[in-house]
């Protein structure tokens, strides 16, 4: 996977760790439905004004206000002025949030991308913990409901996220701590308080490995750390003092693993090379009046 794609994925996983919503107390749709059974004769219709805001009316044409109403098979939450809330998480009396979309309808059995990526079930509840969706195992934060990780295979019940941090549990339910552990096919490093370490390097078997924003060890991918680029191999170790061909391009990584970029470098073989601003080895070009051959060696 290329660098821009990895940046996008990291940004998505980092943004999904917070849930900033205002708790709006409201009866749940199910509570409203139970009360509405006493009014089985009543049906509601929804109309949209010029601004695209939904409003709900009863059979007599009276506008509904303050609460959940079902119209045309969808649920709407109406404010005191009768307008349907939209693009917001609403906090219900059952202690959970439900999401109303741009058209005012409550989200059900679908992904919601608002202040992070989440999934709601058929009742509008946010999923927490590990669930299989469309054949993929999805791990949701048990507090914020943010999507933390997707993988193939069966859910690993030993892996859980809370407030964006990974925790791993043993068979008797005790939290593991202080060391490297494998869960759901990925490696994690847990510190003394049992939380997963993120966005930093840790030694494993004498080599540095990088822990990403979701706590998993990076492998087969680019990593950007404090403005410098590194590449982690399939076992998680990084290239150091070596050449690497990645996606058809050649790169040089120094002794600390940093990718060389935007300048000249003379290596132990006595040859001088130029590396482009994005780190690629320059070939078949002239830079600062110097000619580079097909192997990237400065020949004049």
TrEMBL record:
PROSITE patterns: CW (PS51170). Residues 1-20 form the signal peptide. This is Uncharacterized protein. It comes from Candidatus Faecivivens stercoravium. Keywords: Repeat, Signal. It comes from the Bacteria. The lineage of its organism: Bacteria, Bacillati, Bacillota, Clostridia, Eubacteriales. Cell wall-binding repeats lie at residues 65-84, 240-259, 261-281. SUPFAM superfamilies: Cell wall binding repeat.
């Amino acid at each position: 996977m290329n660098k821009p794609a990895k940046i996008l994925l990291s940004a998505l996983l980092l943004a999904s760790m917070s849930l900033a919503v205002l708790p709006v107390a409201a009866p749940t749709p199910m509570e409203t439905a139970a009360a509405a059974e006493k009014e089985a004769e009543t049906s509601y219709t929804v109309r949209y004004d010029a601004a695209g805001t939904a409003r709900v009316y009863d059979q007599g044409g009276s506008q509904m206000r303050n609460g959940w109403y079902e119209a045309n098979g969808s649920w709407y939450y109406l404010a005191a002025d009768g307008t349907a809330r939209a693009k917001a998480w609403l906090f219900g009396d059952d202690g959970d949030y439900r999401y109303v979309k741009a058209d005012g309808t409550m989200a059900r059995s679908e992904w919601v991308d608002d202040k992070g990526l989440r999934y709601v079930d058929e009742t509008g509840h946010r999923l927490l913990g590990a669930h299989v969706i469309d054949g993929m195992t999805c791990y949701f934060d048990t507090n914020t409901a943010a999507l933390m990780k997707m993988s193939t295979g069966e859910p690993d019940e030993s892996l859980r996220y809370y407030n964006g941090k990974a925790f791993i549990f043993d068979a008797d339910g005790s939290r593991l701590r202080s060391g490297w552990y494998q869960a759901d096919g990925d490696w994690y490093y847990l510190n003394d308080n049992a939380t997963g370490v993120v966005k930093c390097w840790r030694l494993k078997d004498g080599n540095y490995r990088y822990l990403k924003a979701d706590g998993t060890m990076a492998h087969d991918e680019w990593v950007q750390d404090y403005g410098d680029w590194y590449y982690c191999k399939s076992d998680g170790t990084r290239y150091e003092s070596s050449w690497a061909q990645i996606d058809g391009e050649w790169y040089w990584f120094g002794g600390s693993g940093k990718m060389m970029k935007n300048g000249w470098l003379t290596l132990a073989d006595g040859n001088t090379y130029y590396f482009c601003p994005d780190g690629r080895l320059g070939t078949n070009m002239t830079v600062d009046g110097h000619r580079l051959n097909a192997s990237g060696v400065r020949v004049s």
